[in-house]
Amino acid sequence: MTFLDRKKISLWTLVLLSLWILIFRATQVHNNELSWDVFGYYLPLEGTFIYDDPLLTDRTWVEEINAKHHVSDTLYQISSTPENEPMYFFLLGMSYMYAIFFFIAHFLAGMLGYAQDGLSSPYQYTLAMGMVVYTIIGLIYLRKILLRFFTDQLTSVLLLICVLGTNYAHHMTIKNLETVNMLFMFITIVIWNTIRWYEDGKLKNMLAIGVSITMMALIKPSEVLVVLIPLIWGLSSLREIPKRFHQLWLHKNQLILSLAVCFLIASPQVYYWYVKTGSFFYDSYKNPGVGLDFLSPHIYGGIFSYRKGWLVYTPIMIFALLGFIPLYKKRKDLFFGMLIPFLISLYIIVSWTEYWYGASFSNRPVIVQYPILLISLGFFLQWIWKQKNSIRYSFSGIVLLLVFLNLFQWWQFQNYIIDSTRMTKEYYWKVFLKTSVSAEDRELLLLERSYDPANLNQLKNENKYTSTSIQRSDYLPILMENYSVEEFIETKQIPFNELTDKDHCYAQFTFDYAVKNPEGKEIFLSCMMSRSNGDYGQYYFKLTGTDTLQNRVDTLFLTPEIRSEKDQLKFFIWNPNKLAFKMQNFKLKVLEPKK
């Protein structure tokens, strides 16, 4: 009997799943694939090979692209150097992965008469379909890993659960241009080559591990901690760590060569940082409103909440977590090498302040850990299959129901019944297993935030808010009886948790003001949230008027998604032209949701 005969079921499962992913993706390509974050990952290719600006010295061409194709509401994909010069926001890893398909698309665009601008149809379609290659490679390695621990039949079941029973389906098809697709592939390569290296000690496996870890770090820096997998794989206890380092020392020549290759791969990124900033390492991810807060992890929000809780929308993975129990009992040598990297990764994921990760289905970044979790799930299924028939058959029914639930909720997500960012417990159960949703049902969702500056601070359904006046004198500006020509007037800050205990509120500013000789020049009421490393959610209300106190402001500022309840509402008058300005009758009210 040949190898393929013995492995026939899982092989055919892999083939059929790959065909389904390929066909499904081919029917879902649209003309805005290269937008939002993907546009940021993709920018270095356009800058280097189309717009002759590989270092991004001029952002004008990016603004022109956005004006023409509307790839993003704001150009957050561009960061800045210490000298406030433009630079790429994201690292270069995703551009590496896109490159071969970008060149194919560039050739096709020229041959077929499309604009060779990086965003015409050949680019959109070629890159979207090209990413399926990485998805299939990841599945091939996943199958190889699972066959090391389980039978062919159980491997087939685990592959089916991964693709059809989890949020993998969405992010490896419709959203396959995002980071998780590439990260999934690379972590399977790391795990497989780790297994092989500890068996044979071959250089090719060490190189594959090093290259994959480097690429993961260039795609998403926090994923560099995947290095823990080869470091502690196969250790029965942490006391064996010194032996592991001795083992690596015996292969120091392989390690040195691997590190040299890793440095070569990372060198364009290091060179870019150095040329742009003068430093070999630079954090271009400047966004005070979003980031890692290790001391304030959103454990409940990221795992259990209805907004985007992983186990709420991917409940079948509860059994993967339970699988660590039989894994510990049967393969203690695998337990620590799997559990520790998973727990560290999960902690980092829930420490991200935007724990719902944008418009994702379930908790997107946990998918990278599925190769580990599918092994633990396999051990749980092995344990279940040793129980009596009634338990086995009942559990099989539960698995089928959960796969159906995942596919149905994915359909709801694609058809905007499950909302991508605003889910609540009440709304979830209101639309549970429904194929349509009413406007009344949608009233149960979280606040709908507008990206349009003209509508950003509009208050809808005022009857759902209560109003409270701010009375504390240290939070209110001193009334200005005389004119001031200061550029910044009366900066005030109020901790968010003293404004409300809800997830948002509106600040209502009312005052009279006068401006001497404005002559078309402007003054602004500036509002934002402030924290130690910067301000976010900035909004500027333009003040126009004359030299009388009959000019009146009555405006609302909606607080942005709050990073921490200790962040402060900051407001002041910004007078860039230093016009003579005064104000009176200042009042500040807080409008917060009733529930």
Structure notes:
The chain has 595 residues and is of the alpha+beta class. The chain has helices at 3-6, 8-26, 36-49, 60-69, 93-112, 121-147, 152-164, 168-171, 179-200, 203-219, 228-232, 241-250, 252-277, 299-303, 310-313, 318-322, 324-330, 332-351, 370-384, 389-414, 425-430, 439-442, 496-499; strands spanning 78-80, 86-88, 465-469, 488-495, 506-515, 523-531, 534-543, 551-558, 568-574, 581-593. It is built from 23 helices and ten strands. Strands 3-10-5-8 form a four-stranded antiparallel beta sheet, with no helix packed on it. A four-stranded antiparallel beta sheet has the order 4-9-6-7. Strand 6 (523-531) and strand 7 form a beta hairpin. Helix 2 runs antiparallel to helix 6, helix 5 packs across helix 6 (121-147) and helix 17 crosses helix 19. The longest helix is centred in the first third of the chain and has 27 residues, at 121-147. It is globular. The mean pLDDT is 94.
Quick structural overview:
The chain has 595 residues and is of the alpha+beta class. The protein has helices at 3-6, 8-26, 36-49, 60-69, 93-112, 121-147, 152-164, 168-171, 179-200, 203-219, 228-232, 241-250, 252-277, 299-303, 310-313, 318-322, 324-330, 332-351, 370-384, 389-414, 425-430, 439-442, 496-499; strands at residues 78-80, 86-88, 465-469, 488-495, 506-515, 523-531, 534-543, 551-558, 568-574, 581-593.
